[in-house]
Amino acid sequence: MFWKWPRKDKAGIGSRARSSSPAAIINLDNTFAALVTLAGYLVLVSVVAIFYFIITRTLPLFEYQSLWSFLAGTRWLSVSTPPVFGIIPHLVGSLWIVGWALLLGVPVGLAVAVYIAEMASPRVRTLARTLLGTLAGIPSVVYGIVGLLVLGPRVAAIFSLPTGLTGFTAGTVLALMIVPTVATLAGESISAVPSEYREAALALGATPFTAFWSVVWPAASSGLTAAVLLSSGRALGETMTVLMVGGGRLAVPSSLLVPMRTMTATLAAEINNASQYGVQYNALFGLGAVLFVLTMVITTATDFFLVRARRGRGSS
Fold first, then answer.
1. Strand extents, DSSP E, the chain
2. 85 CB contacts (<8 Å, ≥6 apart)?
3. pLDDT tens-place string over residues 296-312
4. Helix 167-191 to helix 122-137 angle, to the nearest 10 degrees?
5. DSSP per-residue codes, 30-73
6. What is the DSSP letter of 313?
7. pTM as predicted
8. Number of other CB atoms surrounding residue 203 within 10 Å
């Protein structure tokens, strides 16, 4: 049995345990084990049920058009006659925005993590973690408003664009949103590296920078990779911000400086206007299925690197 009761002592817990009958202890132990096992299976069943729900509402779409035309199509025309549904515009838009967000947010988040874990005083470290928690807790709609009213007009002025609602603007706002995720997880990975590693490197004559870069960073690399993957999943699943500042253009984007729409933004924008069980309805669930699969891949990769980090295997 995995659950073990505390040792008996003279100060209360043990005496209360001695007063309980063996049958009561065994029953409580079995009940607890059954409850936590049930909770674990409930999570698994929930994921399978959600995937089944999405797939069953996607399959009727392929009676209207082929799977290949859906996955490789470059047009999404829900109001045309006949309607056409291809996810490439949304997929490319998501990749542009998420890629730009990672390019901006990951280096900043890693730099913040290194400062908090290696350089900051205990008081500053506590304050920084509080601020990161506050930044992570701000609703995404607030970030969207900032992007819409502050960043968007400046992007349009700087690049001489007709509108500042572009992939560049959405990715920049998303970069700010993922910084707390990257900084928190990366900071924990760096802090988890045993201090003996640093001391041994310094004792061999390495400078603090060399000790960090040659010893600490490789030892924490699995956790750092997990932080980046988790932040990419966070950016990929973001809806409100990209819907507000992405521009919403239903075409394959050619650069960051044009309006575009992500998969999540399309789902949010069109699901309420789609006729239930119609072709557009099925196509939107197909878009959700693709997003579900991508999220599962990212989550699985994140878990893999987190397990490696906990085992202390580093980058090996």
1. 76-77, 84-85
2. 61, 65, 70, 73, 76, 77, 78, 279, 280, 283, 286
3. 998 888 888 877 766 66
4. 140
5. HHHHHHHHHHHHHHHHHHHHHHHHHHHHHGGGGGTS-HHHHHH-
6. -
7. 0.83
8. 10
